[in-house]
Design brief:
Layout (H helix, E strand, L loop, with lengths): L13 E6 L2 H12 L3 E6 L12 E5 L14 E5 L3 H13 L3 E4 L12 E5 L2 E5 L6 H14 L3 H19 L3 H14 L9 H14 L2 H12 L2 E6 L10 H9 L2 E5 L4 H4 L7 E6 L9 H13 L3 E6 L9 H10 L3 E5 L4 H9 L11 E6 L19 E6 L5 H11 L6 E6 L7 E6 H9 L7 E5 L6 H4 L4
Parallel strand pairs: 1-2, 1-4, 2-3, 4-5, 8-11, 8-12, 9-10, 9-11, 13-14
Antiparallel strand pairs: 6-7, 14-17, 15-16, 15-17
Bound molecules: S-adenosylmethionine.
Length: 465
């Protein structure tokens, strides 16, 4: 991160605009809306009507630095002269005055973002001056996503903060109440009556009897664990339920395969605990993870145990909830897109197909004592697709054992590297030469194998590349 994002309180603070351009007119408006005391030194009278926005315009040529620059908290300049812009920037820098020059991101000490104004809700989008068009494109998309009704929603919350604090004394309780009210009614917030819906629900919560409130409070103080499938990597492959739980969690215990983009979705104050597990490098041993989840829930936390793919497919999710069940802790399981589905879809390889495969089996190629413990004879049906998780290390052995058990050496096979992510790559071949081909390449985990004639469909169905 090259910049520190912040919103400034500029009420009654003197701010200066120097130069003339449409961009400066917009900055004058924004500063005046933020109730700053705005002075604008301009060589020409601004064409925009600025009477309504409380800006003092000083019409004068800009051939020297304004005498009273030290009086201002911040300066926005675009004089049309690179030399004068630089002089202003240097002066501001040496006098610790924040300065923005439209022509030079490097000489500026702050950037003016593209904004979506739903005051008091405000969204600012910035690329630090490096790609302003991208900021504007994103801002326009956000404008469409957040209709103006959100302004009323934000005002409603602001005006009820005190009332809620009187009834719900703990910060956690208040945060959970608002979270629940907003998420339960999210689809209505876009509509004109969104605030009315919120108001009814809030009144019901505030009018709850002490007993009801005690019950609700007790309920909210009981911790719980959600075992959540984070999918194979791409964040937009999460389910809605997974997203809601991640955004509400007080603590997130996550695996190596959970992408950083997904972790960024959690609350900023949520505790993040890395539970590991690269091959032979478990950051926390499994029995300790099981106990950790139980302990966090006993502290009253809403815990999300985030696992790559689906928690019940080679994810040891069963063991984790066995401990929770034995200790009487509330839990739920949220399915995720397993690597087999994600990798197959993004590679254009249907796992079943009327003309190729009528069944599909998921197996683990994990080595135990140097060999793979699979019933090879059961894997010889040419109309069955085999998906091998954790099969890279044992690839040679998998190919040889399948051929020895009777599967044709010409059987197509695909290895999918970092499936569904932007590094997604597919390598294809046939059983008898594939291991040797792969050995010559540099492959990055995680990888998945798909074996069977469905792999040939990729030639016509591949869409992701
Ligand atoms: C311990 S298993 C967990 C599987 C997970 N629970 C699921 O449902 O996908 C980890 C293995 O899943 C496979 N895997 C997970 N994500 C993958 C991805 N994005 N691309 C390829 N393989 C992946 C790899 O074989 C990896 O070694």
């Amino acid at each position: 991160m090259n910049h520190y994002p912040a919103f400034l309180t500029l009420t009654d603070k003197p701010c200066l605009i120097i130069g003339y351009s449409h961009r400066l007119s917009r900055q004058a408006e924004h500063l005046s809306e933020a109730r700053a005391q705005v002075t604008w030194i301009s060589p020409t009278q601004p064409s925009r009507n600025l009477e309504s926005v409380n800006v003092i315009v000083c019409k004068q040529p800009i051939d020297e630095l304004p005498a009273n620059l030290d009086d201002f908290w911040l300066v926005v300049a675009e004089t049309g002269s690179t030399e004068m812009d630089k002089k202003i920037a240097d002066y501001c820098y040496s006098h610790k005055i924040f300065c923005n020059l439209s022509g030079s991101a490097t000489d500026s000490t702050f950037q003016t973002p593209a904004i979506v104004d739903r005051s008091p809700l405000m969204l600012a989008v910035s690329t630090g001056g490096s790609a302003p068009t991208l900021s504007r494109v994103i801002k326009n998309r956000l404008e469409a996503y957040l209709p103006s009704a959100y302004s009323e929603v934000a005002q409603f919350i602001e005006s009820n903060t005190q009332r809620v604090a009187e009834k719900f004394t703990s910060r956690t309780e208040r945060s959970r109440l608002w979270h629940r009210l907003l998420l339960d009614n999210i689809s209505q917030l876009n509509h004109a009556n969104g605030v009315q819906v919120l108001e009814e629900k809030l009144l019901a919560a505030l009018d709850a009897t002490t007993d009801e409130k005690d019950d609700a409070q007790k309920q909210s103080q009981i911790g719980q664990v959600a075992l959540v499938g984070a999918g194979p990597g791409a964040p937009d492959l999460l389910t809605f339920r997974a997203l809601n739980l991640i955004q509400q969690a007080d603590a997130i215990v996550y695996d190596r395969l959970v992408s950083p983009e997904i972790l960024d979705l959690c609350k900023p104050d949520a505790e993040r605990i890395y539970a590991g597990k690269a091959k032979a490098n478990h950051a926390i041993p499994q029995p300790e993870i099981n106990e950790l989840l139980a302990n966090l829930a006993r502290e009253g936390k809403h815990v999300v145990r985030l696992k790559g793919g689906d928690p019940f497919i080679f994810g040891r999710g069963g063991e984790e909830i066995e401990t929770l069940a034995a200790q009487g802790i509330n839990f739920q399981v949220v399915p995720g897109i397993t690597a087999a589905s994600g990798c197959a879809a993004f590679s254009g390889i249907p796992l079943t197909h009327r003309d190729h495969a009528q069944s599909c089996i998921f197996v683990t190629g994990h080595l135990k004592d140097g060999s793979i413990n699979l019933n090879w004879r059961e894997l010889t049906d040419p109309t069955q697709t085999i998906v091998v998780y954790m099969g890279l290390t044992g690839l040679e052995s998998i190919c040889t054992e399948l051929i020895n058990a009777g599967r044709s050496k010409e059987t197509p096979i695909a290895l999918i590297e970092r499936g569904t992510t932007r590094h997604h790559q597919v390598h294809t071949g046939t059983l008898h030469t594939f291991a040797a081909d792969i050995r010559k390449k540099s492959i990055t985990a995680p990888t998945l194998l798909i074996i069977g004639s469905v792999v040939t469909l990729r030639q016509s169905l591949n869409w992701y590349d």
